[in-house]
Amino acid sequence: MLKEINFDGIVGPSHNYAGLSLGNIASASHKGDPSYPRAAALQGLAKMRGNLARLGVQGFLLPLPRPNGALQSALAYDGSEAAALRAAPWSASSMWTANAATVSPAPDTADGKCHLTPANLITMLHRAQEWQDTKAQLDIAFGDKEHFAVHDAVPPTFGDEGAANHGRFCEGHGSAGVELFVYGKPGGRFPARQHEQASRLVARLHGLDTTKCVFIEQNPATIEAGAFHNDVVSVVNERVLFTHQEAFTDQQGAYEAIRTKFPALEVVEVPSSAVSMAEAIRTYLFNAQLVTLPDGSMNLIVPEECRESPTVWTYCEEMMASNGPIREVVPVDVRQSMANGGGPACLRLRVVCDPATVDPRFLLDETKANQMERVIAKAWPEQIDPADIGSEALAKSVIAARLALLEMLDLQKLA
After folding, report:
1. DSSP classification of residue 343
2. What would the CATH number be for the domain defined by 3-414?
């Protein structure tokens, strides 16, 4: 039976605040702060436990090997960018698995398989190093070739940032849907990371019917404001689009384009008068997990920062009191991720498939969660200060911590 499974990224032991992501306001504002990898990973695991209890199924992807020795050897650590170049091979940004890949479920594809294309992430050096190692995990987790097709990333000329700029409208996760691709246009103060051609290449790779695809431009003003991915300003689940009033270049035109192909569209639009764009980005109201519970109702899983914002929480309370499709808003503590610019939606990749076709080592249960919690509590560094990046002692600690997790999961092949 097809189900939507959220695959969360386990926060890696090198989690740090180097401020490497241009256009990411949170990342820039916390540059140079001490980070707390152990707390970050445990916060992420707690979120996964909550979703396992709500939804009955939960997956995960593993931290990538860090520091990346190959990248370290390739870089020249001189000039004005030396500090950023030194930090890039240590980045734990693969924790945000919304950027791991774009996923098209079997009901949408020509060959009836679930297709996954790793994102090339070429706009940022610290992320461009990820896709080959990400693909190595996807090849194992979704190795059943009868049900899955895992591709290489699209050509690096076209920036692709994965599911953070992709959504899917459907009557139910197991039914055929209409896939939404949101892109940005370059030329602004901050880079537009998702190229339209990358989105079209992914759609072609996945064997999608173009009459069931919608390509929409993100409002450049939101990118300028710090919404570096579309999932910072909108989220899709089944028939519902939960979005800010300023999310798209042509807001009404976007709705009409979607309705032409998916007439059942239900828009929940948050007006700027209720929540400003700045506050939406600061609290990551839209970088939320909009999920369908077993009883058919929808929950919106938001960062704790939303409850702490008077304007955002007032809107959420009014929404819950209405007769709309989103019946409950659930705050979660992912502060360590938020400080680097990633909310609940950034931490997960949505895959619609039969759980029985997934390698069980990548699926969470209570026993596994307890084991992972013990490994993290014992092996993950408690704190990383900026001066620690590049040290041999930290490298040994980070490598050993990841290996301990791989051994616990019998995934030493990924070492």
Report:
1. -
2. 3.75.10.20
Phi, psi of 167 (to 5 degrees): -145, 170
DSSP symbols for 250-279: THHHHHHHHHHH-TT-EEEEE-TTTS-HHH
pLDDT at 80: 75
The residues carrying an active-site annotation are 161, 229, 346
Contact yes or no for 281/232 (Cβ under 8 A)? yes
CA distances for 84 relative to 90, 136, 164, 394, angstroms: 10, 26, 24, 17
Distance of alpha carbon 361 from alpha carbon 213, whole angstroms: 33
- Enumerate the domain spans of the chain: 3-414
- Give residue 310's pLDDT: 98
Q: Left (φ > 0), alpha (ψ -120 to 50) or beta: where does 60 sit?
A: beta
Count of beta carbons in the 10 Å neighbourhood of residue 1: 7
Taking the C-alpha atoms of residue 83 and residue 235, their distance in angstroms, rounded to an integer, is 35
Nearest to 362 by CA among 314, 406, 312, 306: 406
Question: pLDDT at position 145, please?
Answer: 98
Query: ∠ CA 146-105-232 to the nearest 5 degrees?
Result: 140
